[in-house]
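Q: Hi! First time doing this. I have a protein sequence and I read that you can turn it into a structure. Is that right? Here it is:
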Amino acid sequence: MLIGFATDDAKALKELTGESSDFPLDCALGINKVPFKMTPRMALTIAREGIRAKSYREAATTLRERFGEDFSPDLVRNVTDHIGAIVWNDDLMQAEQAKEWLKNHRIDRRRRSRNPKDIIVIGTDGAFLDTREESWKETKIGLLYLLNDMYTWNCKNGETGRRITKKDMVAYIGKVDDFKYHFLALALSNDICS
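A: Yes, that's right. Below is the predicted 3D structure, encoded as structure tokens:
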């Protein structure tokens, strides 16, 4: 690690790199500009654990046990927030594109890749969540799958068991007028509308 010890050295390093210290090996490996100086795969692993666990502290403990390295709850929170912001911005962009598509849509059934005999199941629901703010907020949920993707079997007790093997979902906390564009983006990405 390079650190400018003298005032002039520290100032020159800051002007040159924008940082007060430099890691030559990080620069040689090309990870000096990567967020959190970890591979995207590791960042996604941390974010998944940050979402799955009950707390960032629990996620850090699980990651520490899995990888044998020290993970702080703050690192898990920061990585999870970073990945979440990327996903959220992509969702907003797709919703905006869906909004524009709705203004100027033309359905071209020749471009549709789905079998015309497919039965598409679409459902929506909502639930109120305690967001630790002044009031509860409603999350809106949309589900989309093909009837062919529902696996059915007969249980020992004579009842029929069902499991959806492939589905796509969207969830949104906010106004229903905004949610409809997120749901339309889900339909467009699944080739429901062309």
